Amino acid sequence: MQTYEIAVIHGDGIGPEVCQSAIDVIQAAIGNSKLLAFTEYPAGAEHFLKTGDGAPKATMEACRKADAILHGAAGLPGVVHPDGTEAGVDIGLGLRTQLDLYANVRPIKLREGIVSRLRGREVGEIDYTIIREDSEGMYASRGAGAVVREEMAVDMLIVTRKGIERVCRSAFEIARKSNGAPRDGKKRVTCCDKANVLRSFAFFRRVFDEVGEQYPDVEKDYSYVDAMTVHLVERPDFYNVIVTENLFGDIISDLGAVTVGGMGMSPTAELGDHHGFFQAAHGSAPTIAGQGIANPYGTILAGAMMLHWLAERHGDASLTATGNRIEAAVSRALAGGVRTRDIGGAALTKDVTAAVIGELRASVEVA
Ligand code: IPM
Ligand code: MN
After folding, report:
1. For the domain with range 1-104+275-367, which CATH number is right: 3.40.718.10, 1.10.3720.10, 2.60.120.330, 3.10.580.10?
2. Which tens digit of pLDDT belongs to each residue from 213-252?
3. Handedness of CA 81, 83, 84, 86 (dihedral sign)
4. What would the pLDDT profile of 343-355 be if each residue is shown by its tens digit?
5. Cys staple from 266: which of 20, 72, 121, 281, with CB 3.0 to 4.6 Å?
6. Which CATH superfamily groups domain 115-259?
7. Are 54 and 92 in contact (CB under 8 A)?
8. DSSP symbol at 3
9. Looking at ligand 1, which residue's alpha carbon is closest to its atom 11?
């Protein structure tokens, strides 16, 4: 049997707590098998403080060699480079560019047991996926902008035909395999941009249209990003898949997350053609770190996404089944009322871990 090597980066703040919870759940799901081997590598703000390097080369190389990467969260306020940008996030941002992770897949799904902050929205009404371009856009300028005489500053938004094509293809493929939008069952990809104002976005939209022609079975839809923030609040059920530039995706995915319970409920899969990087979309939440109260569901769900990605990549059906079992166990734990403070309960991180593992075991006994 193959063993998949998983590089683990715990990171800062609540990172280690939620990451360990996800690993415990995955270990429980695979039983005593050697299907996955987890190896930890250092990175993040604490590591930067110790060594002056938040994204060590050795960690980068280990991630490149691994079959997948699991991450807690990184970054701490005040731990910054001389230019004022955060040092702790060098690891995540570095992996995106160095491993060419171009599609950041962020499912926004309201699950049973979660009360949406959107009044009256029920389970089944919010279920869409944001595909955030992850390798270029506004973030392309990280470390390469300029401040002139402390009077002016510039960062450039860069999009390429290749970059837009591949992320749009990912979006249409995901829509094709999906059940469509909750409202009407239509498979639909919405291009979220600012094509009314900037050439880069008008270009993004043209390339989106070109790619979309190859997917006649998927409806094409458009929204300017400012309007998108209104639509995601007023008619989330209309959406199936949304594709957008890097910075816009960063922003609207937080908005989406807060409609389905908050950042703690938001897993992400950052995918390239050869590498996959999995984490929750939330940050390191230093104010609640070390108290054992962080919500690990997002990272556990990211773990399930990792298993699904590995399954598809290696044609390994047993991994698909394991990913499905973890997701189902999460759903049952949530439906059973196991909620951390951020989602209206009093459960501790370890209570969630234990509940999800308990559900996994119960499902094996029934099966
Ligand atoms: C995210 C995060 C990162 C980003 C930070 C931690 C650099 O907010 O993954 O959404 O801005 O992309
Ligand atoms: Mn973000």
Report:
1. 3.40.718.10
2. 999 999 999 999 999 999 999 999 999 999 999 999 999 9
3. negative
4. 999 999 999 999 9
5. 281
6. Isopropylmalate Dehydrogenase (3.40.718.10)
7. no
8. -
9. 250
